[in-house]
User: Fold these one by one.
Assistant:
Number 1:
Amino acid sequence: MSRSSKKGPFVDPKLIKKVQASDGKASIKTWSRGSEISPEMVGHIFSVHNGKIFIDVRVTEEMVGHRLGEFSPTRKFVRHGGKLQKEAAQQKPAAPGKK
């Protein structure tokens, strides 16, 4: 559900101060995953916390209006399958090289 248009977009006030004080070269560390990306943030690098580590996110024009947390995934995809899928992959012979 989106935020009310009369309230405007949510951007953490501390994050705005950090962006204004930054020169754009050093990354800005933040835990504010819910903050929307504003046009002033374009070109900056943010280190967004995903619950375990900080993931660097370089903000581009296409990201404006999205949230910082969208670009810092919290879950790691291993792969589908399981024991049967693993056995099938091992039995598959390697492709012969071209001569």
Note: The domain at 1-72 is CATH 3.30.860.10 (30s Ribosomal Protein S19; Chain A).
Number 2:
Amino acid sequence: MGLSGALARLAVRATRVLVVEVPGHWATRMEVEHQLLRRGWRPAWTPADADVLAVCGAPGPELSELVDRLWEQMPGPRVRADITSPGTVGSALDAAAALLLDTPHHRTDAQERAQEPEIPEDADHGGHGGMDHGEMDHGEMDHGGHGGHGGMDMAPEGIPLAEGGEDRDGLEMDVLHLPLGPVLPFWPAGLVLRCSLQGDVVVNAEASMVDGRNDDEDDGAGAAGPSAGPAPAAVVRCDQVMALLALAGVEDAAACARRARDALLCGDEDAARDAVERLDRTVRRSWLLRSSLRGVLLLDRAGLERHGLPGHCRGDAHDRLLSRVERIRAEAGGTEPTPAEDGGVPWAVVPDLVTGLELGSVRLAVASLDLDPHPAVQAVGHG
């Protein structure tokens, strides 16, 4: 028993946490990330790798169903932490650590859980990154009463295969429908991007917000989202820069962005300025960043005018990264950007922007954009 307890406590020190952010609860998610770093815990990118499922905010019905499926996919021993505000993060993670050591609890959990999670007949089967993405339609696919997909061919276990479609030359090619989101690492919270692919190229896309509504629906709801609420603009930009750098695989630069974000969020001006200057130097000197981001979603002046985008979106993902870091430097130094410099990208244009991109660059392209708050998300503060 003594050896088992020692091994369990050692395992808890290396706890991996899968974080789900409810749209609008950016502050809780940032505090969770900060606490994980302090504890030496690490983020998990798939349910199979996770010990703890940390849900930041109170999810709506669609996201709740998805969270339940992620929970079912997690191996034991496992713990779920529902965190409603930044102020409760520490106590919630303390409780999760204690529960990870509760052997009788995990024995009961193992006995009660299903051996194979049940998948509803009308569920979407197109996961990404090992995650199931809840009940989402697939554009023109028909979800019949028997779990069918219209004329789509089905593989064993009900996994949808590609269907036929014409390419730009009039030849028939397979078209695969793949949803990205709403739960992906370094992805806008709640965004669901349904992509139609020919080969690895996006030929059509539709965007919506989980538990929200489509971009073409507008009933006057209050704006919010990852860049809403009381967070200073520099904090939001640092968070977005961190996501882009992490996706590009430049871990040292991503760590610089995270330190700058946390210092700005805590109001430590001296530490923030130092961290931002280091971030600027790291980003500009990185050959890996240039090679990873050059040519990703190239926008010229005509493209900006066509989509109604601000001037700081001009160029490719690397250009937009440098522009964003420069604006962070200005804001950290007390200089407010002009309205023209501070404009964001409307969510409604995201499908048009990613159409024609290779699937492997879609997440980098989305992370390089300064997305406006989504109208389907109500503002949530630090609460």
Note: The longest helix spans residues 269-285.
Number 3:
Amino acid sequence: MRQTQTIKLAAGDDAVLLLHGLASSPLEMFSLATSLNQRGFSVEAPHIRGFGFGSDVTDYADWLAQVVAVFDRLKREYRSVSVGGLCIGSVLSLGLANERPREVSALSLLSITLFYDGWSIPWYRFLMPLWFHTPVRHLYSFTEQEPYGIKNAQIRQRIARAMRKGFSEAGAARITMDHVYQATRLSRHVMRNLHNVTAPALVIHAIDDETASPKSAEHVMKHIGSTVKRKVLLGDSYHMITIDNERDAVAWETNSFFQASIGGLRSGALQLPADNDKYTAAAARR
């Protein structure tokens, strides 16, 4: 599968739109996409031009416009459309839900990154807003380093080998500062409008996320306008939770939430378990 190839998996009348992370591709959503498809969802994970791998950076408003266009098409084709995203893909998911507040059936926000405050972020990160408004923004790029968002040692080795060639299922080996600048603008836009998002929302975040601490997840839970919301914290993963140790738990939680949300919307009664403040992959198998 090519890095820029859209994933399309047909099944039932309920669809899921999955949004990959910054400077990445639908490959990082492949495991989640196949799992949801096996449980009866039709799934589409598009490559977003100007946001994803292999294309010049565009304005964040263009990213949102592309996502809204795909969502609107799916809404015409399917009975319901739920939306999931990883990292900045989660921020895009919230941006979409703000644009289509009564049409998104449910949200799964995975490793949402509103604040770059994880344990692997270098100390000079706080200087970045100053660089955004200088020529440095167009010249500098960040090189991805170990652990590449992966706690599992074997998977990390595979990712590291692929990164030496420039790209892996976990994303590109380098991310430009222009990408980060537009992602920061998107995050600010989304945070200003969180109260307008009313779709049922599932927030899944690793306690040890090296890119964004659980502060981002907590901010969403506190400020989102959704009356139905659930938080799950993972105890055995890093940032790339769709690939790492607890990917099956992420798929199970997302499927369960989407199914419950769709069923609840039809019956008028939606009941969900309480927030889980520490989850392990073994819990999904019990």
Note: The chain has one domain: 7-285.
Number 4:
Amino acid sequence: MRRNASTLSRLSSVLVAGAAAVVCAGAASADGIDNQSFNQVERGHYLAVAGDCAACHTLPGSGHDFSGGRPIETPFGNVIAPNITPDPTTGIGAWTDDEFVNALTKGRGRDGTRLYPAMPYTYYTRLTRDDALAIRAYLNTVPAVHHAVQADRLPFPFDIRAAMALWDMMFFKSGAFQPVAGKSAEWNRGAYLAQGPAHCGMCHTPKNFLGADKTGQALQGYALQGWFAPNITNDRRRGLGSWSVDDIVAYLKTGHNRTGAATGPMSETLNLSTSHMSDGDLKAIAAYLKDAPGQQESAPPAPDQKTMAAGKEIYVDECSGCHTRDGKGIAGIFPALSGSPAVQQTDPTSLLHVVLRGARSAGTATAPTAPAMPAFAWLLNDDQVAAVVTYIRNAWGNAAPPVSGDAVRKTRDDLVERSD
């Protein structure tokens, strides 16, 4: 989920230079990749961007795209992303196409080793073989980097990869995406992208105690890496129900829309992935998400009125200058809090993160300003943060569970351990 901000510009030059190199190299490989097919390489590049491959496989500051070494945080410890450049000894240069496709879509390494689902093969399994091979064709064009990576760094007993055989048996269903009859071509394209290469549910779907998706709660939000990936179903209050298709496309393309702004890991996803996808594909994803049913929940408990009054005072003093007294913000600059699904999530982790540590919204080619929110951890104590956050979550028609000072204290302590 972490990105190197300079990676994308290098990807474009790599694509052009690498594609020229393989054209000069000559004949098609015996495994089915046509090394003379610019179209295949170009398609693979687009899919690698849609799949956000650089996010995990490029170590920030290394200067070497896809050479691995990036720690991927999981509830069980960190998994280190491997080198996927075409280096023959430390990368995937000596792999056959079948070995690559098996790793991508079946979670099996070159020697049959079970991969951990931090590598989203549970989603990539929906890729067609042609699309998987297109990604391989693109990766063949990036500079080979000799960089050995020790991926096994999980503590015992999670370091026993053989146990993944049982995990796969219980939770993994292999198979390419099958179009759904009765749905439009656009919907099916969006479903293929969201369920496959874009692997939206990897962050936005709740997980069980073994790290597998709770499929009955698909896309209803999940806490990870110090943030809460929000509900992206069509739920009216907590999801995308109040956003139009155009709102979703604008958000994914620019990082902003008329009410919202992307921060945290989502801003990284925008910078390296969705902002570079075609408008047609983003519209297809939006059509698919708008069809995802929300969760039926009872009304949250009403907040204490004394807490609301204290929170309102803090809000007027510290927040209303940007977000306005009525919580409507300023479109494209300061996100709205009134009616905001991000504010009304069942889990307030992201809101607490932003209030305590501050955040900068996404900056993209079409919306480069990237306004920032200052940190308030130095100014407000735990009870004050709890009061203002509870107020924001329940003012202007919003409704969400109150936040306690203890919850703020825990979040504050957790953030001390984080550098980003």
Note: Strands lie at 71-74, 77-80, 222-224, 227-229, 359-360, 372-373.
